[in-house]
Give the backbone structure.
Amino acid sequence: MSEKTGSAKRKKLVSDILVNGALLILVLMWTIPTIGLLVSSFRTRFDISTSGWWSVFPHREWVKVTERELGDDLDRDGVMEIEGVTGTFKEFRDGIETSDGKRITWIGNKRLGRIEIQENKWTMRTDFTTENYGQVLAGKEFEIRQADGSVKIEQGDNFWGAILNSITVTIPATLIPILIAAFAAYGFAWMRFPGRRVFFIIVVALLVVPLQIALVPILRDYTKLDLNGTFLAVWLAHTGFGLPLATYLMFNYISGLPRDILESAFIDGASHFTIFTRLILPLSVPALASFAIFQFLWTWNDYLVALVFIGAKPDVQVLTMRLAEIVGSRGSDWHLLTAGAFISMVLPLVVFFSLQRFFVRGLLAGSVKG
Amino acid sequence: MSGVSYKNMTKAWGDVIGVNNLNLEVPDKEFLVLVGPSGCGKSTALRCLAGLEEITQGEIIIGDRVVNDVPPKDRDIAMVFQSYALYPHMTVYDNMAFGLKLRKTPKTEIDKRVQEAARLLGITPLLDRKPKQMSGGQRQRVALGRAIVRDPAVFLLDEPLSNLDAKLRVQTRAEISKLHQRLETTFIYVTHDQVEALTMADRIAVMKDGVLQQVDSPQNLYDHPDNVFVAGFIGSPSMNFFSGTITGTTDEMYVDSGSVRLRVSQSEVEQLGRDSIGKEVIFGVRPEDIHHPQYQPAGVTEQLLESTVDVTELMGNEIFVYLQTGEQNYIARVDPRADLRPGDKVQMAFNIEKIHIFDRTTEKSLATPSSN
């Protein structure tokens, strides 16, 4: 008996290690790039373009000790002797290590004779700055010295407009489908009307329709209705594309509520509307919240629908477009992109963590008996 | 305050018949128990009365109003569900007040009624709790309270005790009976438990396969079951049945199943009629009418039957003995002093005044023991 429990314990231990190990790997896979993004967003423009974010951690690297000009007396096309080592220009360009652990590296071109004497040292690149965020958020002015020596003053990218636009798009695009879907789900689950099954099958079938095929027809209708480029257009689009899943999720949850409770309310004298508002809505909070997270996240991160229906005019463009523009219009502004990307993650993270406890419960909606 | 009557009521879903042509009168203030095995249509009959199911045919009358097309809320009924059906997100107070609020009852009146019901049920300290924070018994009281505050003409209770543990069930059973006496309202109570039916009911209606079998007071139902089903369903352990024929002469009539041959008492011979010799019957004897020869009560007209003991179950105040005679098995409830062991041979004493005789084809009662 004790042997048996012993082996069972060992089995459990092994499976625990496997499960937790797999989870740990998954967590690392997801968090490392995020941390990288966060670190990068605080690094200077120069650092970002010359080294990876991981160089903020202690590591060994060749570091310059001294530097000196070379005389003209060297044969630059042949074999040279500098600081006690010999080699060709090519070898010096790659760096030649001396016997005492130093490295001689030729800097610049062949004609400008300059060498660095480097040592392999433990070092960290901790030259952090909040300037990236400042520029992204406040649109701070910064100077760019151009090739001809003149100084150009440029306005930094201001994210606030895009953030507000994103919020303006996301909140109604989350609330409208939830409200409609909850009503619809209640109807499908608890009201008897002709064609109930057929309508529900249609809703479920719509789950598999990719939204891309609807883009052009809807765009043409919007043009006729003069809706293009308005927030209403994108609210309606998100509502339409989100409704099938929302209805299906809410149906699963609401149809799983105990029948007795509703019948009891009927006898107590409640109408369908009262039952919906006084019983169904309060009892469906987990499902509502879980769908709210979904819908919020994908409308917040949406690029395609927003691009098609409200376009990229600066006064309406959303955050995702603004980010895309940073890469697009200034291919080298990685420091701004990282900061901007991180700012765009803050709100989804806040939403996720504040509604987190409903998340799993809502996902399991209807599949587990409470 | 009003009675209820079902008139030729049928409920069917397509070809599936839930309740078949039910005719039942429940006078005002009666405690009627609908009892039967699961799937017999008793809950359906109750739900039709509540208005949760539409009836297919016939009429349901509450008071003097046909309520076929009246929605549940206007039927002046309150229902207690097996699962209690409390609103999980509301406090006990709100649970009880919900129906009254929907009816726009004045606040002070609601408060008065809720407090009164809570006092009646002893749940005043629980009024601020949510259903989650209460035990099964407490929830059950709240469910009752929710019905009481509505002050309905008819209380409908759908297996309200099935989710309670055995001890609490017995206690609550008595409390519901008390409640009925105090409220003086019509109660219709559905259960599959014949003990609940016998202990609480003014009258019991037994149903099987959607058909009403018999309606009568508990005692009459027990003593004079109309058919084999009722005889077997009411009473625990259930009645012993033997299938056989009537033999003998008009002066000395027997029911005979081969192994069991019992003389029919004079009063039952009269019920059977003189010409019934040769008739195929099922006859039944309740376990408590079979005694151990040493411990039989006085005044029993006995007939001894040699049997072998299979199993004994001591219940404390009595012993259930499983016996065999010839090909037949039967159960007897005997005095706990009887010292019986499996394998013992014993002359069991059958009380022949207490034989129930049924027609074998129709299963209807042909003769029942006279009450004494």
Remarks:
- Chain A is about 60% helix and 10% strand.
